[in-house]
Amino acid sequence: MKDMQDAGCVVYFAPEYPPLRLPRGVNLSEHLTIENSPVLFGCRTGICGTCRSNVEALNGGRLDSPSEDEISLLSIICPGNPAARLACQINITADVKITPLRKDEYGL
Questions:
Q1: Which helix (H) or strand (E) holds 86?
Q2: d(CA 70, CA 22)
Q3: Domains in the chain: boundaries
Q4: How many angstroms separate the CA atoms of 9 and 26, rounded?
Q5: What integer pLDDT is reported at residue 48 of this predicted model?
Q6: Radius of gyration for the alpha carbons in the chain, expressed in angstroms and rounded
Q7: pLDDT in tens, 24-39
Q8: CATH topology of domain 27-102
Q9: Which end of the chain offers a freer environment for a tag, N or C, measured as fewer CB atoms within 10 Å?
Q10: The pTM is what?
Q11: How far is residue 60's CA from residue 40's CA, in Å, rounded to a whole number?
């Protein structure tokens, strides 16, 4: 029987993009494009904040914790939002739901 960890993870998007199955452990930004996701990317290195999104691990899964640099930027661009992450900094370790945040949703 195939090990379930080899089955990969599913990335769900809100609102209207079909889910993607990605290998476990890959960096999300390396697999998302304007054609397959609603997430926009600028720098893809975690310094611009363009890819800010609400991210929810599903089915009891867990994602790696954000780095200190990511936490610092999110405290400025998404203050008080514990679900906010930079999509470019996420390594997929669980099924996730991603909802991009619009500029008007956090007051910048």
A1: strand 84-86
A2: 23
A3: 27-102
A4: 10
A5: 93
A6: 14
A7: 999 999 998 888 889 9
A8: Ubiquitin-like (UB roll) (3.10.20)
A9: N
A10: 0.85
A11: 27
